[in-house]
Specification:
Chain lengths: ~260, ~260
Amino acid sequence: MISERKLQSSKWAGWQAVRAQSVSSRIIEQVWDALFRGELTPGDRLGSEVELAQKLGVSRVPVRDAFRTLQALGIIDIKVGAHGGAFIAAGDAKRFADALAVQLKLVGISIEEMFDSQIAIETMAAELAAKRATEDDLAHLRELVDELARMSSKPLSKTAAVQFTQVSMRFHEALVDAAHNRALAAQFRALRIVLEPIYSRRTSDAIARRVVASHKDLIDSIEARDADRARTLMRHRLEVVRAHQLMKAVDSPDP
Amino acid sequence: MISERKLQSSKWAGWQAVRAQSVSSRIIEQVWDALFRGELTPGDRLGSEVELAQKLGVSRVPVRDAFRTLQALGIIDIKVGAHGGAFIAAGDAKRFADALAVQLKLVGISIEEMFDSQIAIETMAAELAAKRATEDDLAHLRELVDELARMSSKPLSKTAAVQFTQVSMRFHEALVDAAHNRALAAQFRALRIVLEPIYSRRTSDAIARRVVASHKDLIDSIEARDADRARTLMRHRLEVVRAHQLMKAVDSPDP
DNA sequence: TGCGTCCTAATTGTAATACATTTATACGAA
DNA sequence: TTCGTATAAATGTATTACAATTAGGACGCA
């Protein structure tokens, strides 16, 4: 998206003097670079369209164009009304999850690629969870597994089978959160958005029991702070899911 | 980004009649929905700003706003000149990488989180490379390692030390590409955008030799199709880098 | 006929102005 | 004090105009 970056060592001085290329792309580039140089942090005000236009000696149009682009990239929020204008946005995982969804739709990445990527993320998450999970994290995980165990103790009705899948997904989320790594969590959520429609909605009784057993083992290993075992268990679990999904097994279990 | 989606079962009929909210956001929503309903595929022409404006009974401005947003999202390409206008774009993994990088930057993720995430991605990439690397992939990797070996055979000058770091980064890129997984590749590039400014620019002689040895081992394991060993080697390598960087060792080696 | 050049029309990029709409803040009235 | 209202700042949209870019056809030349 943005390529050449000249030094311009000054902090806020490099903002006027927009030269070649298109004006709007220059503005975008400058904001982008300033963000990654750490000169801009969430909440900072860039100014209004008119302010920036005057400062750069251009009309509202290219500034507006740049604002729309930066807004779409999730870099700025735009507020209407008095004391409005462009502000550096706070991070929002959903934004790049959307971006991922778009690209996957356009490129047509294979399911297999997605699964392998998911395995990479979640096995590391399991390992880190074993190292860093707090008592609260563990309690939350146990709670979810108990709920799954209760559900699987009797034959699953149609609605219960759907609910089981959802709770199981919540378990995976909780586990990733227990790893206390927001980069992993962000990537996990992005992958999930794309993979979710692929996973089957309902879980069969037999698989449900396997899932519960597997999750219980996982919690045990985390509780024992056995990172290697946690990673291995998660890996095996996901390989099974992967195999099921890739042969289009309709009764596939837990995402 | 886009929320409510009403049915409007017709294919191209729902395009006029833009009502409440902001006009531009309605346009964005319609294109977004059409894309995910499969009514738009890469290469399709949306029309020019004027065409759409007339069709929707609005001015060029909101249509232009929508185009900028859709362009930033990677959904459309805009061509200038005769027979130009907006076209549904082909996918581009770099866009997702940019989006992820932005969010990681905005959320303010710690270096440690980034490293662990990188380890997750690259260890899986090494493993997959051992399974799926082609002869071309291996040749490319060998080429890069040979270059590194040549450079490290004599003491590194200041500029050579910088160059060594760059070539080493190219090696990591080549390895991820050899895994033939675009989802992993996109995530790798995203992390790299954020991590690159952190890594030291120059590599010391002692470390350079260690890096070359490590990379050679890695290639050997890939050539032997030993996925476990490839993963383990990559893991150890990155753990070393991680430790170096976290104690702010200025002579840190290869990203 | 074949090929290269120029021209033309379509289209985005930018400018300038105007007005409607939204919103934070200050001021004023009860 | 509290509530409402006026005001000003800012985006959203409309209109018109022109510069810059570009694809494709027309034209001319061999």
